Amino acid sequence: MSTRPSAQELAAADGTTVPDVLAPGLRVLFCGINPGLYSAATGHHFARPGNRFWPALHVSGFTSRQYRPDEQESLLDHGLGITNLVARASARADQLSAGELRAGGARLQDTVRRTRPAWLAVVGVTAYRTAFDERRAAVGPQRRTIGPTRLWVLPNPSGLNAHYNLDRLAEEFARLRNAVESS
């Protein structure tokens, strides 16, 4: 979809899903909280204008150029993928229950065991804390592993996350990239 979704398309996207960008043996599987309505309406992860996932991925050095959300399948060529803790789209992540996040964490662990990425990067520390029952988790590497897969928590790239501007967000993505390249 090359145009912005209409109000009707956004409303119709509530509760729908966005397919994972996934393959076995990825270098990094990025995990969002859940698709927003804009992403669900377009069928592309992190698609809302103002979301800083794609710029941070590029500025941090994961990709040689800034990809658009409709190019998400190209991430597989870089050993990168995308999934979500909770599959259903909603207007805001705070509309998800703690039970949904915990169930999403269990489903995510099954996905990771099956596909075996080297790293799982969850974007959103609050959602990670709930999904994995790690109340003190902070942005950065985690002690927890899922089999051989190491975990990292990144800040939420949503434009609503005022705690991180693009430069600071890209620094956190670059910390992960450095860890991936040195492991």
TrEMBL record:
Gene Ontology biological-process annotations: base-excision repair, AP site formation
EC number per UniProt: 3.2.2.-
Family annotation (SMART domains): UDG (SM00986), UreE_C (SM00987)
Pfam families in UniProt: UDG
MF (Gene Ontology): pyrimidine-specific mismatch base pair DNA N-glycosylase activity; uracil DNA N-glycosylase activity
Entry keywords, A to Z: Glycosidase, Hydrolase
NCBIfam families, per database record: PRK10201.1
PANTHER family with a match to the protein in the record: G/T AND G/U MISMATCH-SPECIFIC DNA GLYCOSYLASE (PTHR12159), G_T MISMATCH-SPECIFIC THYMINE DNA GLYCOSYLASE (PTHR12159:SF9)
Protein name: G/U mismatch-specific DNA glycosylase
Organism annotation: Saccharopolyspora erythraea (strain ATCC 11635 / DSM 40517 / JCM 4748 / NBRC 13426 / NCIMB 8594 / NRRL 2338)
